[in-house]
Amino acid sequence: MSTRLIDLVHITKSYDDNTVLDDMNLYIRENEFLTLLGPSGCGKTTTLRIIGGFEKPDQGTVLFNGQDITNLPPNKRQLNTVFQKYALFPHMTIAENIAFGLKIRNKSKAYINDKIKYALKLVNLDGYENRMPDSLSGGQQQRIAIARAIVNEPKLLLLDEPLGALDLKLRQDMQYELIRLKNELGITFIYVTHDQEEALTMSDTIVVMNQGYIQQIGTPEKIYNEPENAFVADFIGDSNIIDSIMVRDELVEILGAKFACVDKGFGTNRPVDVVIRPEDVDLVKPEEGTLQGVVTHLIFKGVHYEMEVTANGFEWLVHSTDMFPVGTKVGIRVDPYDIQIMNKPSSEDEEAVGINE
C-alpha cells in the first residue's frame, strides 16, 4: 500500500462571507493520480492552491510526508503547478523555458542540457529546443508547460484544468499523454477538472466536490456505478433518478411497479432515491417488461441510440444499440444489480462529507 504524501486536516477557507471549504479532510497517496471534480465554485481550485501554497487556509493543517507545510511558500515545497494558461515566457526559447527553474537552482549547464533533452523526449517534442512558444500549437505549448514542471523532479504535480483551452481531439490525446507520464515518472498527480469524462478516463481516485464539501471519494468505477447521493449520480454521467419506495430488503417500488434489487438495510416502506444508468435500462416487448411505456424521442449517437421513454409519468433516458422508433410501445426491465438505492437527504442542502479511504 502506498504511503500518504499529502494530508489535509480540518481545512476551512472563506472569502468574505462565502465559505469555500468547510472542515475538509483528505489524504493523497504517493504515485496516485487523484482528481478533484466538481462544478464551478465547489472549492476544487482553492484546495489545489492551498496544497500548492498559493493560499493559506483560515483553519487546518497541510502535511507533506508528515511535515507541516501550511505556512511554507510555494517555492519551498516539493511540487510544481501547471495552470490552464500555460504561462510560457514568450521571449524565451523552448529550451530556456524548460531550463528556467533549473537555472534558479544553480544546476550545471551539462545537467540542464540533459534534462531539457529528457523532458522534450518525454512529452514527444524532440528537437523543439530552439523554437519560440508562439510557433507552437496549444497542445504543444501545454506539453512544454508540463515538461518545464517535470524537469524539477517534483514529488507532486498540481494540474489546474490544464487541458481546458484545448479542442476535444487534443484534450483526448493529452489525457493519454498524462496517464503515460504519470506511469513513467512515478510522480503524484493532483488534477482539477469539471469534466466528468476526463476524470473517469485518467484518475486512480476521484474526489467529487460540491459547495465546499466532499460528496464522495472512490475509484472511477465506484463513483460511476455506486454513487452515494443524487448529486454524484447526476454529476457523473447521465442518470435516471427516481423517487421510489423501499418495500423491504431487495425489493423496491419504482413508479408503482415492484423491482427486485440487491440493496438491504433501508428499512420497510421507506422513501428512497433510485439511480439507474441509461445503458442499464433494457427495452423489451411490452408484456415482458416490469413497466410499460412509449418511445417519445430518438437520437443516433454513433455508438448507441439515445431514447426517451415515457412510462407512468416519468421520462426514462435509455442508451441502447437497438433502435426503437418513436411511438413504439415497449417494456422496461432492469437487472437487480443495476438498481442503485440511496437514502433521501433530510434537507435540500444536506451534505455528504466523505473520507478518502
Provide structural commentary.
The chain has 357 residues and is an alpha+beta fold. It is built from eight helices and 20 strands. The protein has two domains: 4-225, 3-Layer(aba) Sandwich (Rossmann fold), CATH 3.40.50.300; 239-343, Nucleic acid-binding proteins (OB fold (Dihydrolipoamide Acetyltransferase, E2P), Beta Barrel). The protein has helices at residues 44-52, 94-104, 109-122, 138-150, 168-185, 196-202, 220-225, 230-235; strands spanning 4-15, 18-29, 33-37, 59-64, 67-68, 79-82, 156-160, 188-193, 205-210, 213-218, 240-248, 251-254, 257-260, 270-276, 282-284, 291-300, 305-311, 314-320, 329-333, 340-343. It has a six-stranded mixed β-sheet with strand order 6-7-8-3-9-10, sandwiched between helices. A five-stranded antiparallel β-sheet has the order 13-12-11-14-20. A five-stranded antiparallel β-sheet has the order 15-19-16-17-18, with no helix packed on it. A hairpin with a 2-residue loop joins strand 4 (59-64) and strand 5 (67-68). Helix 2 (94-104) packs across helix 3 (109-122), helix 2 (94-104) runs parallel beside helix 4 (138-150) and helix 3 crosses helix 4. The longest helix is centred in the middle third of the chain and has 18 residues, at 168-185. The termini are close together. 36% of the residues are buried.
